[in-house]
Design goal:
Largest sheet: 2 strands, antiparallel
Shape: rod-shaped
Strand order of the largest sheet: 1-2
Number of helices: 2
Number of domains: 2
Bound molecules: zinc ion
Structural class: alpha+beta
Distance between the termini: 82 Å
Radius of gyration: 27 Å
Helix content: 40-55%
Oligomer: single chain
Mean pLDDT: 87
Low-confidence stretches: none
Strand content: 5-15%
Order of helices and strands: EEHEEEEH
Length: 122
């Protein structure tokens, strides 16, 4: 079998294109690239799913209550800027599932911040 120079180091090898060392390195690199693609794809899927749930929550709320914020630390009030809030914050182990989501306007949502329920801003 004729020897060919390795594409990386030029050392003669009986492998088709790379010496043993660089063949292994190349395969590991390909594996890492595949893992990276899989990771970002599942991350994308998760985001897409959350966006869908979030818009369902908003749509359901609007069909029942209209542009109306239930209030957080303030009385319920009309609002054209409704957002979806996590009942248990993600940072406290909450999920993006529907049962952990509720509607608050942007201003109530941001005054709530990541405080747990029941501890309201003074
Ligand atoms: Zn080589
Ligand atoms: Zn509000």
């Amino acid at each position: 079998m004729p020897k060919r120079p390795c594409l990386r180091c030029g050392r003669l090898t009986t492998n088709p294109s790379r010496c043993d060392v660089h063949q292994r390195e190349w395969e590991q690199g390909r594996q890492r690239a595949r893992d990276a693609v899989r990771g970002s794809a599942s991350q994308r899927g998760y985001d897409t799913q959350y966006r869908r749930v979030r818009s369902q929550v908003l749509k359901g709320w609007r069909s029942q209550h209209g542009e109306w914020c239930p209030g957080w630390g303030v009385p319920a009030h009309a609002s054209a800027d409704l957002t979806v809030d996590h009942v248990i914050p993600l940072s406290a182990g909450g999920t993006n599932r529907r049962e952990n989501l509720r509607v608050l306007c942007r201003s109530c949502n941001s005054s709530r911040g990541s405080r747990p329920d029941g501890i309201q801003a003074v």
